[in-house]
Amino acid sequence: MDQVNPHTPSKGNDARAALRDILPVAVAAIPISLLFGAVAVGKGLSPLEVGLMSALVFAGGAQFAAIETWIHPAPILVLAFSTLLINARHVLMAASLGPKMRVTTTQKFFGFAFLTDESWALSERRALDRPITGTYWGALSGTLFLTWVSGTVLGAILGSFLGDPGRLGADFAFTALFIGLVAGFGLSRVNLVTVAVSAGVAALVYLVAGAPWHVAAGALSGIAAAYAAAGKEADA
Amino acid sequence: MSLDTTTFLAILAMAIVTYATRIAGLFIADRLVLSGRAKTAFDAIPPAVLVAVIAPTALTTGWAEALAAAITAVAATRLPLLATVAVGVASVVVLRQVL
Question: Does the predicted interface ipTM exceed a cut of 0.90?
């Protein structure tokens, strides 16, 4: 693994590749970030608090879940726990992507502060044929970070002026984006079984137990289904 | 621009928990050598998690969202990401009008 890659990456190429990869994600994130800011202000947060949350937490799913259930004064432990449940997936994502990155350990501890589903998914796809450089990761996650923080603050400032975001379908952008990312992992038999089981269990648990339990329940069921669907031949 | 102390502490708690989940994987990565079915299950984590996050919106909100999700899924197999998102958003807007 320590062998030098035959096609040595140049910083300019890596930055360009990152911007090309992240552009559709960043564009899709704009309406979502505006929506988040507007909803958060409606729940009583100030634009400053919205900006702080976006910059310090920088996790859309956890932020939406927190705002969805936001009350005053903020229930710190409840929010921390639902954040842990929703973001637990980061552990496995970092474990998988970490070894594929060509950066120092210190850089990993800094860079992974900006780990998101999107930058991770794009990096895993790129890592199929080349290692991930600090330039690529920095341009990728930095672009998304700036988009998210500025978009949510702008949404918070515009607040009530935006009106009902559902009218423009902006509330569905997140869902459509994730469907697109899931399709990027391929349509193998195992993937189709995983998606079907995860979706079914998550929807059921959401109806029965509510958020945020559906994430852990659906994901774990989908992973178990993949294990089962892989069959014994995979162990041979 | 107001900053409530309890709100700030809640944001800080969320931030610390999130950062912990982001770097915890770096400690187990070296010991994580997977093969066979375990590897397949590990590779299934991303689609499993992504689908679980959106399942409530896609499947439990209403017919418009469920149909739009199906249309988006078909679009995703043949269009680039941004076009897929556009198709999804456009179809949910139209379906909400119609249904």
Answer: no
